[in-house]
């Protein structure tokens, strides 16, 4: 299934081998080696959830499946890999409504499709590892510019061993009406995935990017530390949707950040499920006047998992606004934490921010915490913060059951209603699958 390019443990030779495998220029190798030095120097973040069981020396930092490559037709994809993605519905989704599809298996892209009409408009949709050589000036301009190498220990690790994923460039005045989609499958036992996404929208452009991630359960720790850097120009509009369906042995340590220009809009919509430990805090930096961001997310897991998730918004200039809506479910001793940051600078006069955090507890042992940090540097801005936590109403359950609905179905219906403000923002095919997954969680009761 895999070639000899399977790299476990992390040192300078490993980093050089990854760079060589990707045929990178010298400047990228130098960046990787610098990141490795910073990784070795930095301590583990102390405020994050417990990572003591994560053995970084046991992770495979690069796994290249056989026959990897940018296959242009679905028939060219190897049968065993194609079967995995067939179950996720890639061919059907592409036929129905997608402008393009991108599929990555472990560390390598295995399928890539882009509609000709977008090619004719100079839209770029490529593997970031390939884009380093094809578009060096664009990569140099944006790579590490929203998330610096020194951000934290796992940022340095990511930049030392990153490989693959999406480089997307939307030129001025181009509006892509159909969703743009990527699928990732982390299939290697004790695997590590360090994909790097760069999305650039020039002035007065629009796009919607959807990302789906999954991994099987192997009863051995795996690590996902992917990075997303988004840059959107004046009067542009970007929507980033993410569904992360990890296995119960995955440490999901993700970093996503967008730089927001004047009069533009950035929306984050994401769903996180089932990873052992998740630390995910997407950030919008509202850099210029009249910029806006919306963040909608939901998390659902159980069985002693720890979901430490939140949102960060930095208001830098005047008349900026942010709206955050979070929904979390706690079941079977799960720990759910909203850890958010609203930072309104002195220069961000007349900024407006609203945060709404809701938690639904499905048993008597789960834990839900809200840890907001709000820093307002001027007296002209307005901030709302609301948080609620509670259990499913016994009266609601009784009412539904009295109408002939089973307890399992009634519970799933109430949960779907609770999640509906976020679910309705997902594309229809995703929302439908989420409903099925939620119903499966309640099969057999509690």
Walk me through this protein's architecture:
The chain is an alpha/beta fold and 446 residues long. The protein folds into two domains: 2-280, no CATH class; 392-446, no CATH class. Helices cover 25% and strands 39% of the residues. The chain is built from eleven helices and 25 strands.
Number of domains: 2
Neighbour order of strands in the largest sheet: 4-3-7-10-13-15-18-21-23-25
Helix content: 10-25%
The total strand number stands at: 25
Unreliable segments of 5+ consecutive residues: 67-72, 90-112
Please state the structural category.
alpha/beta
Number of helices, counting only DSSP H or I runs of 4 residues or more: 11
In whole angstroms, how far apart are the ends? 39 Å
Largest sheet: 10 strands, mixed
Q: Please, what is the average pLDDT?
A: 81
Name the shape in a single word: globular
Gyration radius, in Å? 22 Å
Instruction: Report the portion of residues in β strands.
Output: 35-45%
